[in-house]
């Protein structure tokens, strides 16, 4: 976890110190469409650079799920396999309290690790740019921690659904690779639900929230990180795309908050129900 | 709840795991204040039954009650009155013995000094040591100390003496008696008759998920004492069982086991006749010992009783 924290901090520094603003009327990044050149030369590009796949393994969109899943995957299956769950349940400990305790403990570690990355990022942003919007960065930070809890929560659910650590590890790997290579997008496209169904993707919700404080930026409505990695470039597209600024309700920030909340809550409900019915032999 | 409410009640409980039936229509009642031994060989279903008592498992059929409360629907109510040492008790390797007890005290909202419990199980010197460094015996004693926190009305102990040295075992036995004297009901599982004899008043014998017999410990002893097994070491290695031995009234069976002669007797009084028979046949006896019947023999004895 110390190495992970160091890498997170390094990633934030690398991104914030590498990002250059678009010197044009409008532009397109890997995750966002820039509608116009910001009046003030602020940190908006760096903030949104943190979640650009352009930075590959340094991207928060890549690192946060990895961190959440790593912290979450052992929560139930490890004490179940070692017998420590029996030690706890032999005492008058409610299963809800056990889940809450694990969520708090691992959530604190998650927040601390992400916090270090965000802090390094913020310091780099301050050094790199003339102005930086504190409130916007706080919103971005909250969205990032929330996004981390989504993956922690998914890790908990996988941990409770499968019987052995090896099975859970395989499931975590599959889920992570699945999201990296966008199986979600493939499924949504195949079902003919483009682009509306993207709103239920936790990554999309995160992107919407991260850009919410900036009027001059809207998130792209679809995700294609593997394509972006190959073909990233800043292209001037002009303000005609401002028409896209009329963001539909299902891609607005309140819905994004709701979607992230659901992604945190539903896996936890699954975990709790499994924990209640778990057979400890 | 009246005083007549049993401490433990299994009401026609069946537990299956896929195709395997671990418990089959088990009914069992342990009275409040009793020291009950739950005996059976490994794989008989003892740990499954304890798993049901602690709500680690949910019965496929039937009901398990503790002090009249359904264990499944009143898990916390039951556990607040129960102290348990489950099989394979696993501590947190990075926490010290004292921290384990502090945790147990805080969960049970007890003010007692955690060191008090460690002292009772002989772990005072290891209070600051991380539990991951404990030996198997120390780990069991730590688990036992945690079960004592809060003076529970019922102690459920799965093989509490297993893996302990004689001193540790004696200490645990003493503590179990102490707990019983203050009013706690004790439910002890074991695959060793000798352990249950020294701890319990009454025992149930379980085999292949079914209750084979229930009796007071003295009744069990009487049944076993009725049929000792003689293991006789002869000067010359035996090649066959002398006819004179087989002819003795009261000898059930005799055979050669490695270099010793084994004789199953109906009762203790037959032993002298056997030794005399060897002497009269001119076979010198160097040594002999009387082995008590094993638990398996007790099962067999009960099974025979039932079939006749």
From TrEMBL, chain A:
Record's keyword annotation contains Metal-binding: no
Domain of life: Archaea
A GO CC term assigned to this protein in UniProt: plasma membrane
Annotated TM spans: 60-82, 103-125, 137-161, 168-184, 251-272
Entry keyword set: Membrane, Transmembrane, Transmembrane helix
One GO molecular-function entry: ABC-type transporter activity
Keyword flag Transmembrane helix: yes
Protein name in the entry: Uncharacterized protein
């Amino acid at each position: 976890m110390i190495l992970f924290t160091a890498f997170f901090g390094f990633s934030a520094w690398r991104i914030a110190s590498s990002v250059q603003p678009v010197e044009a009327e409008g532009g397109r990044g890997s995750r966002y469409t820039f509608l116009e050149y910001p009046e003030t030369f602020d940190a908006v590009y760096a903030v949104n650079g943190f979640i650009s796949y352009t930075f590959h393994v340094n991207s928060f969109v890549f690192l946060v799920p990895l961190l959440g899943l790593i912290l979450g995957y052992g929560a139930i299956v490890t004490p179940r396999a070692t017998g420590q769950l029996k030690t706890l349940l032999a005492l008058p400990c409610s299963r809800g309290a056990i889940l809450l305790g694990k969520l708090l403990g691992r959530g604190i570690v998650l927040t601390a690790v992400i916090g270090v990355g965000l802090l390094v990022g913020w310091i780099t942003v301050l050094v790199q740019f003339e102005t930086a919007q504190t409130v916007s960065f706080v919103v971005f930070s909250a969205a990032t921690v929330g996004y981390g809890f989504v993956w922690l929560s998914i890790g908990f659910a996988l941990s409770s659904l499968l019987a052995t650590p090896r099975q859970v590890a395989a499931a975590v790997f599959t889920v992570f690779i699945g999201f990296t290579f966008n199986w979600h997008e493939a499924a949504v496209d195949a079902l003919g639900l483009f682009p509306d169904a993207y709103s239920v993707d936790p990554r999309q919700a995160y992107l919407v929230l991260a850009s919410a404080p900036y009027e001059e930026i809207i998130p792209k409505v679809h995700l294609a990180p593997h394509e972006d990695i190959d073909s990233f470039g800043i292209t001037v597209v002009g303000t005609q795309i401002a028409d896209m600024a009329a963001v539909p309700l299902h891609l607005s920030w309140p819905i994004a908050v709701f979607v992230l909340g659901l992604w945190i809550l539903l896996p936890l409900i699954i975990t709790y129900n499994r924990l209640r019915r778990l057979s400890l032999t | 709840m009246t005083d007549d409410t049993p401490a433990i009640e299994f009401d026609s409980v069946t537990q299956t795991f896929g195709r395997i039936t671990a418990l089959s229509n088990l009914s069992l009642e342990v009275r409040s204040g009793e020291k009950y031994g739950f005996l059976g060989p490994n794989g008989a279903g003892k740990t499954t039954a304890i798993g049901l008592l602690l709500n680690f498992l949910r019965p496929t059929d039937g009901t398990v009650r503790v002090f009249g409360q359904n264990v499944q629907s009143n898990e916390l109510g039951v556990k607040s009155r129960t102290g348990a040492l489950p099989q394979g008790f696993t501590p947190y390797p990075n926490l010290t013995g004292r921290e384990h007890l502090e945790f147990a005290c805080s969960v049970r909202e007890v003010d007692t000094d955690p060191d008090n419990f460690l002292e009772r199980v002989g772990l005072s010197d290891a209070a600051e040591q991380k539990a991951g460094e404990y030996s198997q015996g120390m780990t069991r004693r730590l688990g036992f100390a945690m079960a004592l926190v809060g003076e529970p009305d019922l102690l459920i102990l799965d093989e509490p003496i297993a893996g302990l040295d004689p001193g540790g075992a004696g200490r645990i036995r003493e503590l179990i008696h102490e707990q019983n004297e203050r009013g706690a009901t004790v439910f002890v599982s074991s695959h060793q008759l000798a352990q249950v004899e020294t701890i319990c008043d009454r025992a149930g014998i379980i085999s292949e998920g079914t209750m084979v017999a229930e009796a007071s410990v003295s009744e069990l002893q009487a049944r076993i004492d009725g049929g000792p097994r003689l293991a006789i070491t002869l000067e010359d290695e035996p090649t066959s069982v002398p006819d004179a031995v087989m002819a003795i009234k009261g000898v059930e069976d005799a055979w050669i086991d490695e270099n010793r002669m084994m004789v199953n007797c109906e009762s203790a009084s037959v032993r002298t006749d056997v030794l005399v028979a060897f002497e009269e046949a001119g076979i010198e006896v160097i040594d002999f010992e009387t082995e008590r019947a094993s638990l398996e023999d007790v099962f067999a004895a009960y099974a025979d009783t039932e079939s006749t």
